[in-house]
Design goal:
Length: about 160
């Protein structure tokens, strides 16, 4: 799996309330959540982020509560991948469970600027800043986890496996 998009750069400790503000947690519709994704962190994101854009962030992305709304909002916004120096542990699990691929690479975060075009290859862990030509490494996402992502998340993956039985 490979993704290419324009980088949206965020700092460290972006918590789940910044990803999807708590005032919208009574929503369960992914599209409604997507409409408010990152609005308190960068108000431009709501209006200017396009499907295919990639979030690039500092350490501890997704810290805070254990709500699944955060990766759902990002994915529904059309963001195919998040690259960060590190992720909060519960966000890491929730992201894959919801089918949102994430990659950890401090070098990539340092080497990507807002608006750069970035390519992320999940199979190889290779992250390329197409604007500058710089190449960075991340741990590849194992094939079984890529299948979970392709199936739309853990629930979709389980349903697909049951269909095969």
């Amino acid at each position: 799996m490979r993704f290419e998009g324009r980088a949206w750069k965020f700092g460290a400790n972006v918590d789940t309330d910044a990803i999807i503000p708590a005032r919208y947690l009574n929503e369960s519709d992914p599209e409604a959540l997507a409409a408010h994704c990152m609005e308190d962190e960068d108000s431009r994101f709501v209006f200017d982020a396009r499907p295919g854009d990639i979030i690039v962030a500092g350490t501890n992305f997704g810290c805070g509560s254990s709500r699944e709304h955060a990766p759902i909002a990002i994915k529904a916004r059309g963001i195919p991948c998040v690259i960060a120096s590190s992720f909060a542990r519960i966000f890491y699990r929730n992201a894959f469970n919801m089918g949102l691929p994430i990659l950890e690479s401090s070098d990539a975060v340092a080497g990507v600027s807002e608006g750069d075009t970035v390519e992320a290859d999940l199979s190889s862990g290779r992250i390329t800043n197409l604007t500058t030509g710089a190449v960075f490494s991340s741990k590849p996402i194992p094939p079984f986890m890529q299948r979970i992502i392709q199936d739309g998340g853990l629930m979709g993956h389980i349903a697909k496996a049951k269909e095969k039985e």
